[in-house]
Design a protein that fits this description.
The chain is an alpha+beta fold and 137 residues long. Helix content is 66%, strand content 14%. A two-stranded antiparallel ribbon has the order 1-2. The radius of gyration is 21 Å and the shape is rod-shaped.
């Protein structure tokens, strides 16, 4: 079960980094050229974060993997530390949906979602392959 915990931890750390990156890292840049009041040429460079360009919708998109990590972690580890087969299958469905979103968005933000999907997928596969006698207590 340590594989499940490490995979969930890795996916969660990456997902938190995505949210922080959407808020803090410049994802867009631009250059402007013009003239000032004296007729001299001027130019300036601008940068903007994902949230500055796309508004809070960009933060929602960056937060989807983090929400999936919380839900999958709750399903796999459960309140008592045991996940039944139904919870494991539900976690697998959530990871599959996140994987589909990742594939559909590969040309934009999807490439950054791949590590979170891989970590969650590894956690689900490890939980599904564990025998019932080896479930955590």
């Amino acid at each position: 079960m340590t594989t499940v915990r490490f995979a969930l931890a890795g996916a969660t750390v990456w997902s938190i980094a995505l949210v922080v990156g959407a808020l803090a890292l410049p994802a867009y840049s631009g250059d402007t050229a013009g003239t000032d009041s004296t007729g001299a040429a001027t130019s300036s460079s601008t940068t903007a974060t994902l949230v500055e360009v796309n508004g809070w919708w960009g933060l929602v998109l960056a937060g989807i993997p983090l929400a999936a990590c919380v839900v999958v972690g709750t399903l796999l580890l459960g309140p008592a530390g045991r996940a039944g087969r139904a919870a494991q299958v539900a976690a697998a469905v959530i990871v599959a949906l996140l994987g589909a979103l990742t594939i559909l968005s590969l040309l934009s933000i999807g490439l950054f979602l791949v590590p979170a999907v891989a970590g969650l997928g590894l956690a689900v596969l490890a939980a599904l392959s564990a025998s019932p006698a080896k479930t955590p207590t």
